[in-house]
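Pasting as-is:
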Amino acid sequence: MPSLVAGLQQQGRRGNRILNKTAERIIMRKNAKRRADHVAQEYLPAPSNVRLADLMKEHNISQPELAKEIGCSKSTISRFISGAKGTLTHEQVLKIARLFNVSTDFLLGETNIPDRKNYDIAELGLSVEAAKNLYTGRVNTEVVNLLLENARFAELTYRIAQYFDDTFASGIAAQNAMLTTLSTLLRTKVKTSAATKAAKDISLRRKPVYQGDLDDIEMYFMAAVKEIKKGIGSHYAKQEAMSKKVAEKMFTELTKGQDVQHPTITAEQLTDAMLGSVSGMEGATPETLEQLRNGLLGILQSAAEQENAHEADE
């Protein structure tokens, strides 16, 4: 029976896995929003001509330079900034927004937050397949955002690029070739025991070509993931306590009216009780509940058989 109770507690924790993941997604989303709100800089309300003048001053760009960048005359820019009748075309507004890396809504005075929300795939450097994976949800976009926001992960991308283009591997390979040549020369040209030993020592100094790259990548990746996890926080203790409480409640109900020291609980009763505790959770469809029931029943029946076999051996 103790093993059945332990199985009940363990499966209660498994049954709450859906709840755990849902809670963690909500927390990750809130943290991401909190960081975005903190990073975003808000400007005072201003008409579009004043806003453009401020951006030009901030970036130290003159009217002739801006006119050349967006393909219009200096007088067009001058009239727009002065508030005269001059207007900019849609294409010119887009070019200005991209030049200053702000949204068109901010440039036109419709929002006071300059951050752009929409980017062209080419601007982001994404391939069509990468963008498709993000758009269709084949990758977890929340995790991708958290990684891209992390400074350690940013450094990691460059180290992976060096691994892919053999930046360091080429040097190690050249060093290995030199060591191999020296070792061979010592063995073949110098016929002494000291030379043989030296050749062996030199040969042992060769390193796997990619080992250094892979060690660095692993170190930076794990550091980034741990840092992100630290920011999100841990919530398993609360869920563990909840699972324990649910398990104890189920055990009390299942043993009601029985001898507590020698209760009789079948695997089917335990399974049905555990399914009842998760049936209202998100994603608990009839199909998933049936799959869960079959899995739990098999585990509990196996635990009961092992316990009976152990008792028989004793």
